[in-house]
Amino acid sequence: MKRILTAAILLMTILTGCTGALKERIAALDEQVTKMEEELEKMNTTISSLYTVLYAYQKKDFITGISQLDDNAGYAIHFNTAGDIVIYHGSDAHVPRVGIKRNPDDGNYYWTIQYGNNEPQYIINEAGDMVSAVGMVPLLKIENGKFYISYDSRKTWQYLGQADGANGDDIFKKISYNEDYVIFETYEETFKFPTNKLVQNLTQSASTINQNIVGLTTLIKDLAKNSVCVVSVSDYVVDGKVAGSVVLLSNGEKLVVKDWIDSGSPYISAEKGPGDSVYYWAIVSADGSIEWIRDPEGNRMAATEANLEIPVVVPVLDESDKTYYWSVVAAGDTTLVLDINGDKVPVTSSGGELALFKKVDNSARDFITITMANGSTVTIPKIYTIAFGTESLSMKPSTTKTVSYRIYGYDIYFRSSLITQGDLTATASADNENPGSGKITIKTGAGFTGNGKVVMVVYAGNGSTKTMVKSINVAKED
What whole-number distance in Å separates Cα of residue 179 and Cα of residue 117? Predict the structure, then answer.
């Protein structure tokens, strides 16, 4: 009896131990399944994000924000058009890896799946066709230790295999970013997107340089006619900081002169042609070498003649590396801008952009001086100033000379008068073909001994109370 009791106790102990071990194994399996299901949900989220990345890539979208999730679990990313996505990092759960791959035969993108260290394979639907990555998002689930995939938003499921696939590596192999681009690398493809900062810069820079090209073309023409002046000079402000000057001209054009950044980048310039006195548009490298901007017939594009097409600066997307580079389009012909080493010049969000001007000097009373990118200068009179052909004369007694004048900022209401000092007289005659211009005729008397002066006083008009005063000094000629 004692032996029977001992055996019974021993058997109960064994059974109790086995039951405990079995419960632990079941609990571990349940935990593993739960973890796998959680990882599958994250993977489904990332798969959906991969679909959005492809959609955004094909639509040439750009990224307006990127941030890391808590505990470095992944990234939250916002596209300008495609919206928000979340990308989770992989884990140690055993789940297959879903990806996207471009088929070289037809150029289209299809969904792939990878088990273990095997090569990724295209996902094949029940009809035996590869599943397009455009228009649908596959979803994974685990049920009874088996993987299933759905192509119709969980309505139907197709068996994939046992839930013992690859380690749960990232669907995205690597995500890297700087202030200009965000790059998504999967195990099969790479997708590169510009940032909002770069897009804003290339849009603003292209607009500014093209505005300046038009403005400079008009300025050159109007300066030759003495028919343009500076209405105002104001600060050019970027992100709350003064970054240059904005020059408003009387012909309606506006020049934006950014503070010069000596980055060694090429610049756009109007350069005098070889063998003639005509100015032509050109791309000038840091070493001074010139590449003329030409039309499709190979002719240089003149910067001074009227009614000629003005070249346009355009950022061009290189499909091979998905990077934007500067180019110049003239009469339908595109010229890539190259640096001193012959490399294409990329568009960046800071510096390295094309430029026409270096700086504006607004310190003089009657004019401003703009320094061009090539170092030459252009002087432009300010509004409400008087410009004489000369401000000093030498005359003998009983002689006559004329001096041209130009009044900037006049209108039909302006009034002018001349005041003389010394033994001389002066009269003004307007040039009816060039309003605001004319000639001052100065006559010395027989007793003229020098120290003469002619003072022009102009009441501006244009609703202004501005009074302009300028004088011509007249000395005795020996």
Answer: 35
